[in-house]
Amino acid sequence: MTGGPKAPDWLTSGYEHIWLPYTQMQTAPLPQAAVATEGSRIRLADGRELVDGVASWWAACHGYNHPHIVEAIRDQAAKMPHVMLAGLANEPAFRLAERLAELTPGDGNRVFFSESGSVAVEVALKMAAQYWHNKGETGRKKFLSFRGGYHGDTFATMALCDPVDGFHTAFRGVAPGQFIADLPRDDETEAALDAILERETPSLAAVIVEPLVQGAGGMLFHDREVLARIRRLCDAHGVLLIFDEIFSGLGRLGTLLAAESAGVRPDIFTLSKTLTGGTLPLSATLASEAVFEAFQSDKLEHCLMHGPTFTGNALACAAANASLDLFATEDRLSQVRALEETLVPALEPCRDMPGVKDVRGRGAVGVVELDIGSFEELTWLRQRFIEDGVFIRPFGRIVYLTPAYNIPRDDVARLCDAIVTIVPEWAARFEKKK
After folding, report:
1. Which of 66, 117, 138, 185 is deepest in the core (most CB within 10 A)?
2. pTM score, two decimals?
């Protein structure tokens, strides 16, 4: 690894004060100083340009600086960036709620806005727990999630993440414990889930799952039958079902929603990340009309007592409306299907390389799973990719691609070629064997 060009002053002086996400600040190298973006490219302060393979944590689905979204943000900022959504209404939020309700399978007809994916999941949990409370079943306050899952970094969501292989083992016991099960991939695991639900239904408010792919847990895929099994069991035991579509929603897997592809309707589901095309923080929690009806009452305590300051932010909602426009006018889903036909075949040469455990993908997701044994290896890979002119940020055991849906073919080739080239370098440097 080379030391690289001199870092700008604002980076080195600010580094003494900033606390970065998912970063061991004592040992991590300085982050790259980004100064501009365009399409699938990130320009650095030293003049280098990186092809972005992860779309800023999977969010920039239309690439950076799309003129339609930029114009919508500029126009809304000039008129009214924000007003509170209690007692006041803004057009972008109300139009967006209507559009989201129309695109959901089933009757996800009521939309609650917040600012992040974790908070959207928290809102879903509160909806589910209060649904039962309002119906007089006050003991139903627990939740069931699945091994390999990830649902966020806030306290309630941490308790839903994989307790062994997740990011939050240091907080085990801090947040209230929840039920964790294996995904029902076969008759045996379905029977095990059935037994848990049979035993725990009096205390259970909902089951939560990431449909079709467990994202931050390792890009772990499952098929639609898994979701059908979960839906059947929830119906049999009278438990609500929540789909966490923060990662899978709005095109990443080739349909607007994973629920649409799976043909399974949840009672509540969540969206974020690609909702504004990766431009502004916004999330949405959508509930069925049946869930919403449980909150209709002449009693104040039966309303949903939740309200982030920037709920339904007009600026973010304007960006989200513009992002939804692009799914129709630029046919993003066809572009995702083209990526599905490209990514895994291009990464397939890695399968027989030393240290490679698996190559897999679906939609606009490509994954090479490695036998990574140390954080030193992750750091080396991340820096080596940047040296090669690409921004690919492995985590856990996986090197993955989640690019913008409209990324040019040449940039896709650069990303895949970088992985195919650098994985054997990693294997040789850290003495991996087949």
Report:
1. 117
2. 0.95
Pairing between β-strand 390-391 and β-strand 365-370 as defined by DSSP bridges: unpaired
User: Looking at the predicted structure, is the pLDDT value of residue 3 above 60?
Assistant: no
**Active-site option among 52, 162, 244, 267:** 244
Q: Hey, what are 378's tokens?
A: 């992750």
**Per annotation, catalytic residue among 131, 162, 267, 273:** 273
Number of domains in the chain: 2
Structure confidence by residue, pLDDT tens digits, 219-237: 999 999 999 999 999 999 9
Could you tell me if 37 and 98 lie in one domain? no
**Same-domain check for residues 214 and 143:** yes
SS3 112: strand
Catalytic residue among 52, 131, 142, 150: 150
**274/171 same-domain check:** yes
142 classed as catalytic: no
User: Which residue in 9, 22, 299, 352 is the catalytic one?
Assistant: 22
* The one-letter amino acid at 426: W
Confirm whether 432 is a catalytic residue. no
* Domain assignment of residue 3, yes or no: no
**Catalytic (active site) residue 131:** no
Residues 200 and 257 both lie in one domain: yes
pLDDT in tens, 334-392: 999 999 999 999 999 999 999 999 999 999 999 999 999 999 999 999 999 999 999 99
- Please give the angle made by the CA atoms of 55, 361 and 248, to the nearest 5 degrees: 55
- Judgement on whether residues 287 and 374 belong to the same structural domain of the protein: no
Q: Could you confirm whether 150 is annotated as catalytic?
A: yes
Task: Give the domain-ending residue among 285, 311, 329.
Answer: 329
Q: How is 338-398 classified by DSSP, letter by letter?
A: HHHHHHHHHHGGGGGSTTEEEEEEETTEEEEEE----HHHHHHHHHHHHHTTEE---BTTE
- The domain in which residue 221 lies consists of 67-329
pLDDT at 103 over 80: yes
Q: How far is CA 153 from CA 25, 339, 355, in A?
A: 19, 30, 30
Q: At which of 301, 329, 357 does a domain end? A: 329
